[in-house]
Amino acid sequence: MPILRTEKLGKSFKALQVLQDVSLEIQESERHVIIGPNGAGKTTLFNCITGFLPITSGRIYLKQRDITSLEANERVKLGMARTFQKNNLFWNLSLEQNILLALTAGKSYRNKMIKLLSSYTELQEQKEELLTHWDLWNQRHRAVNELSYGEQRVLEVALALASNPKILLLDEPTSGMSPAESKHATQLIQNLPRSMTMVVIEHDMDVVFSIADRISVMHHGELILTGKPDEIRNNSMVQEIYFRGGTLKSAAD
């Protein structure tokens, strides 16, 4: 039974049809990667699934619940979290302050805090756990705008994880990273618990084939194919439409 499902999802901006009849199923605990050329509608699909954009047609289901009309914050409460294609951070705050704000947002006492954040043991322990996992602990006192772009991208993922999501949507998590940063971030993503479902938009084929259980290919706002990595790699239609006749290879080839 899928944890996330879209049913004939469509999105248009006046006369411009950006998504058309996108029916996608994400299985629980799956690592599902969405690929496609620039302008294929991948980020628009994420924006619709997460409630940042209203859809024009179709339905969206999370664990069989119709969430089509829910606001983005309500979807977060149901266990959905995401990152953005462009970093969405508090630039002048420190790295640990960003993390603490994200952690506090999910607490029942967030609107009635009468003590300093440093006195909440639970918050401090969760902060340390997140920053340690993502190799950011030694940077915790630095302002975000002083971090490298790769470190900022990693912090964005850590912030999304602060809500302890059941399903995590990552929009090009390795975009703009150096090869070394990308390899490191990929390893960290691979090490996330299988209890959490992941949907990833990614352009780097080495990353795609390193993390994907299944891959969906989008083109001109349509979902044209979903399959296992080898099926996608060897599919002539995918090579023709997405790779202009090139050959798909992974880092293991």
From TrEMBL:
Transmembrane segments: none annotated. GO terms for molecular function: ATP binding. SUPFAM superfamilies: P-loop containing nucleoside triphosphate hydrolases. PROSITE patterns: ABC_TRANSPORTER_1, ABC_TRANSPORTER_2. It comes from Ferviditalea candida. Residues 4-245 form the ABC transporter domain. Pfam families: ABC_tran. Keywords: ATP-binding, Nucleotide-binding, Transport. This is ABC transporter ATP-binding protein.
